[in-house]
Write a structure and sequence with these properties.
Layout: E1 12-18, E2 24-30, E3 37-43, E4 47-49, E5 55-57, H1 60-70, H2 78-93, E6 99-101, H3 102-116, H4 118-128, H5 134-151
Parallel strand pairs: 4-6
Antiparallel strand pairs: 1-2, 2-3, 4-5
Pfam families: ATP-cone, Zn_ribbon_NrdR
Family: Belongs to the NrdR family.
InterPro entries: ATP-cone_dom, NrdR-like_N, RNR_NrdR-like
Length: about 160
């Protein structure tokens, strides 16, 4: 870290604090050459590799705008979308990679979106899982039904018959 005042190539960290949202670290530094203090902010960079090979910085806003289309007409608020985008970023960053494929981000969206709104999930999944036919939709809906049945903890048949 070069001193911004005298360009000395070294500095000493005097104090470190994480930001309120926990995504960056603010460091107070002092130059051993001129003695002046300055602050730096450090963040872990995350780049998205687009289909055409171009790199661009990760953006929660792009996640929100993409998912918003799937949520049109659904009871999903802007704050719901912000929370979803934050969860997706946490999932992606937990991999530890500094670069991630755009398609992998699309797939990482599926689970949090499914929890948020199943209709929006089906709309979004039809693109990212490349649904080709009605059978693909039927399979996805069938899996949602199975998951609902197992989540309810009921082992009884749906018609109420049984012991």
């Amino acid at each position: 870290m070069f001193c911004p005042f005298c360009r000395h190539p070294d500095s000493r960290v005097v104090d470190s604090r994480t930001s309120d949202d926990g995504t960056s670290i603010r460091r107070r530094r002092q130059c051993p050459n001129c003695g002046r203090r300055f602050s730096t902010t450090e963040t872990a960079s995350l780049n998205v590799v687009k289909r055409n090979g171009v790199l661009e910085p990760f953006s929660r806003e792009k996640i929100i705008s993409g998912v918003r289309k799937a949520c049109q007409g659904r009871p999903v608020t802007d704050s719901d979308l912000a929370v979803l985008a934050q969860r997706v970023e946490e999932i992606v960053r937990s991999s530890g990679a500094s670069q991630i494929e755009a398609n992998d981000i699309g797939l990482a969206i599926l689970s949090p979106l499914r929890e948020l709104d199943e209709v929006a999930y089906l709309r979004y999944a039809s693109v990212y899982q490349a649904f080709d036919s009605l059978e693909d939709f039927e399979d996805a809906i069938g899996q949602l039904r199975i998951d609902h049945h197992s989540a309810s903890g009921s082992d009884r048949p749906a018609d109420g018959a049984g012991a």
